[in-house]
From TrEMBL:
One Pfam family here: TIR_2
Cross-referenced InterPro entries: SEFIR_dom, TIR_dom, Toll_tir_struct_dom_sf
Gene3D superfamilies the UniProt entry points to: Toll/interleukin-1 receptor homology (TIR) domain
Organism of derivation: Pedobacter psychrophilus
Residue span(s) of domain SEFIR: 4-135
Any Gene Ontology biological process: signal transduction
Protein name per its UniProtKB record: SEFIR domain-containing protein
Length: 248
């Protein structure tokens, strides 16, 4: 089940042009699967503004603070609706708010200022119109928690000593096969695969898959012909078996 993220947009009514910009941003966010909350959508004359702010600030997954010069000044001075929103966010009533839910959005000309209480947070810069699409993509990805680059899994240490190497999930079977190969081969150059299969009572196919894994790891060498197959332990395989006490 997909959960629709909710984003509350906090901004100051600087100009009609800025109100239009905030409206267009909210509309586009809603078109991209985000429940964008904007006063222009929600409030009619006579509406309870404090109740609107308190309710949606508390329930939003993200709070987008559009930081124009006037917005920053009002937030720092605690003026108007912007100041009230700041008070709600920083008050003890909201002490359990997730600090990562606030995203400062810079919408200024020549400056990159955020309210004092947001200075430790990373922001998204929407000041340059030419970079709008890049900034918007970053914002939408942040709200949907869909980063452009996923953290890759940690690979194996290429300098790990042989004695500390670990086989794959079927390590017990591979260890057993390696042990029997060493035992049956003795001082000979190789051992017939059928002897190993009979000793361990496993299917030829499972044996072949296991031998290929051991060969890939450098523990054995295998030779397949139409008539029979042979296998021989390598020096690396012998050292592994000795260090891990697979042989006496």
């Amino acid at each position: 089940m997909n959960i629709i993220p909710k984003a509350f947009i906090s901004y100051s009514h600087d100009t009609q042009e800025h109100k239009k910009w905030a409206l267009q941003l909210a509309t586009r966010l809603r078109n991209n699967g985000i429940d964008a909350i904007l006063d222009q959508f929600e409030l009619q004359p006579g509406a309870d503004l404090p109740h609107f702010m308190e309710t949606h600030l508390a329930s939003a997954n993200k709070i987008l603070m559009i930081c124009t010069d006037k917005y920053v000044a009002k937030a720092n001075k605690g003026q108007g609706g912007v100041g009230y929103e700041k008070m709600i966010i920083t008050s003890s009533l909201m002490k359990n708010i997730d600090a990562n839910k606030i995203i400062p959005i810079i919408k200024q000309s020549g400056t990159l200022e955020v309210p004092t209480f947001l200075r430790s947070k990373l922001y998204i810069n929407f000041s340059k119109e030419d970079d709008f699409e890049f900034s918007y993509d970053e914002l939408v990805r942040s709200i949907h928690n869909s980063p452009l680059f996923e953290k890759p899994a940690i690979g194996n240490n290429p300098f790990k000593p042989i004695v500390q190497e670990k086989l794959e999930d079927d390590s017990k079977l591979l260890d057993s096969i390696l042990s029997v190969i060493i035992e049956k081969q003795g001082i000979e150059l190789y051992v017939l695969s059928k002897f190993i299969i009979n000793e361990l009572k496993i299917s030829p196919m499972l044996f072949k898959i296991s031998i290929l894994k051991l060969n890939k790891m450098g523990f054995v060498k295998c030779f397949f012909t139409n008539d029979y197959s042979t296998v021989a332990v390598t020096e690396k395989g012998l050292m592994y078996a000795f260090e891990n006490k697979l042989v006496q």
